[in-house]
Amino acid sequence: MAALFDSLGLKCQECGDSEEGATQGYKVVELRHLCKTCAERIAHAILGDVSAGKVKWPCPEHDKKEVELYCKDCQVPMCHTCAVTTHVRHELADILKFFAQKKNTIEQDLTKISDLKSENLSFLEMLTKCSKDIDEHFDALESKLSTTLTTKLMDAEKKRNSEIEEARKRAKEEIDKIIENRESSIAEINARVDDVKFELEKKNNSVSAELQDMKSRLHLKISKARETTNVSLKTIDAEDSVAKSLLDDCDSKVFHDRLQNVDMSTFEKIPSTDKDLPALLTSIAKKVSYKREDGERNVGFLAGTKRSFEMVKTIKVSSDIEEPFLVCRVNQQAVAIRDGAGQGLYKVDVESGTIDPLMIADKKRGIWDAAFLGSDRFAYSDYKKGMIYICRMDNDKIEFHQDLPDDGSRYAYLSVDSRDRLIAADHVQGVFYVIDPKTGTICRTVSDIEARTIQSFDSLDNGEIVIKSGHAEISWVYLSSGKVKKIISLKNWNQRINCHVGADNRIYVLYRDEQEQSFTGKVGVLSSDGTTRQPNLIEFPTSWLYRYRPRCVMPTPGTLVILNGSVLLVYKETPGAGDL
Q1: What is the three-class DSSP state of 366?
Q2: Which of 70, 105, 203, 256 lies in disulfide reach of 299, CB 3.0 to 4.6 Å?
Q3: CA of 182: how far to CAs of 157, 158, 161, 194, 195, in Å?
Q4: Contact 17, 11 (CB under 8 A)
Q5: Of the ranges 209-213, 270-274, 330-334, which one carries the lowest mean pLDDT score?
Q6: Are 276 and 127 in contact (CB under 8 A)?
Q7: How far is the C-alpha of 284 from the C-alpha of 134, rounded, in Å?
Q8: Model confidence band, residue 189 (pLDDT cutoffs 50, 70, 90)
């Protein structure tokens, strides 16, 4: 028989031995071809199962055997017989050590759950304090508003009494002449004072209603945060109970059975809170203040209900950079400036205030405008050579250059549109050149631009071009045809303006106002379609002595940089309560 198996070339299905004479054709209960050694070993194991007595935790396959191992591949407990038969070559572990590791993991999860529970309870305390602070602040505002109304009403009453007394005096002096008109005069005075009182009460009710509306919106956000936190606490409590129940009566088999009924992944999905929310809501609420106005019919108004900009720092430009000129945005953290003659180009980091050269000053160079192409390249127009150059940022090495076709286009403004194409605008002729930034070649020319002369331009997200032309005109132009979509005049703001499309796709207009030989720089904002306007959003002192007027650039939403002489003013946007 052995010879027959050997001639068939059979191998041991347990150890894989195929040497000559190794396979003797033994068969056991498993009905496999085994060598003599493997057959004897398995047979002894099976006989041991038969002779074993009762055990505390029987093996699922061999009820006479004690469970001593755990198969990590099949996730089942077993005896040593299973280990050498059914689960051979599987990853095994001592079952007591395995359960000890599981218990340790759950204890760590309990610690995590306890920390998260404490964190949520602390967050609820912060929300309670936030709500109390807001209530106290708005109560103080309401008290101030009520006091103002009372004072105004008393003033109106005194004025009425005074006028009535005056009317009576005139009546006594000219009794015959005024006797018929006295009552009508008193009625007229009463009616006028009643109108004043009505207007005062109406204004008071309006301000009070606005105050209550903002208070309600703040409390609604607090309520939602509290509700979300309470839901999180319930989830945490539930997971806490499950985890603790697993650690009670940790008999090996009971613990194993419970583990099979628990989704361990839920411990990793316990929600956490927004710790900054209470401070943010309190900050927005305290930004709202009540201001009394002068005048007979004015109660006052609420300040801090709209967004505003506040100056957070100034950056002094080195005196080595003569007559600095703010050019454009480099990235979300930096802007670019050049000197007045355009000999050098520099990068200013808005956060750190450091100024690094991108192109060291060269008298042969005449930079007019620049635009940055991604993170590694930039383009600039040279009015001395009538060229546009595309360079590397790391070593200012020129990759491509392009002759400007017309002499008037030496003074070319540059921008990058929403499709990352380089756009050059002829300052004099009103022509757009669409340039491939990868090759530096002119792909398309758009002539006969209706908005002339081009004094600056920028690109909107929808592909339209915003042009500043004339003294105070801003035009929306289709790049595909050069046709004007819309034009607005800002002469009521100023006749010498410049504009910039910020990183938030809004149009920031900077201009100067002169009053008694004192100059004030101002920044107003237009929506991307020009339908809404907000003048005088920022004001700062400036002078007419600088060769170039102040300019502004928004490198990232919420941060506005203004060059005022040789100083960069950095403003941060603060949302108002009305933005809730």
Answers
A1: coil
A2: 203
A3: 19, 19, 14, 18, 20
A4: yes
A5: 270-274
A6: no
A7: 10
A8: confident
Contacts 24+ apart (CB under 8 A), 514-521: 514/544, 519/543, 519/544, 521/550, 521/562, 521/564
Q: Is residue 276 predicted with pLDDT exceeding 80? A: no
- Buried b / exposed e across 517-544, counting CB within 10 Å, b at 16+? eebebbbbbbebebeeeeeebbeeebee
Nearest to 479 by CA among 425, 554, 403: 425
The structure tokens 């108004």 sit at 301
Q: Which pLDDT does position 3 carry in this prediction? A: 42
Concatenated DSSP letters of 286-338: HH-EEEPPPSTT---EEES-S-EEEEEEEEEPPTTS-S-EEEEE-SSSEEEEE
Residue with the bigger pLDDT between 29 and 381: it is 381
How far from 240 is each of 52, 110, 226, 418, 532, CA to CA, in Å?
42, 7, 20, 52, 54
pLDDT at 252: 67
Residue type, 549: R
How far is the C-alpha of 80 from the C-alpha of 330, rounded, in Å?
A: 69
Helix (H) or strand (E) holding 461: none
Q: Is the pTM of this model over 0.85?
A: no
**The Cα angle at residue 455 between residues 451 and 461, in degrees rounded to 5:** 70
Three-state DSSP at 199 gives helix
- The DSSP code sequence of 40-88 is HHHHHHHHHHHH----SSB-SS-TTSB--EEETTTTEEE-HHHHHTTTT
pLDDT at site 227: 87
Spatial CB neighbours of 385, under 8 Å, sequence gap ≥ 6: 366
* Phi, psi values for residue 331, rounded to 5°: -155, -165
Q: What's residue 182's pLDDT?
A: 73
| Backbone φ and ψ of 182, nearest 5° | -60, -50
Return the residue matching tokens 């380089």: 422
CA angle at residue 233 from 229 to 236, to 5 degrees? Answer: 135
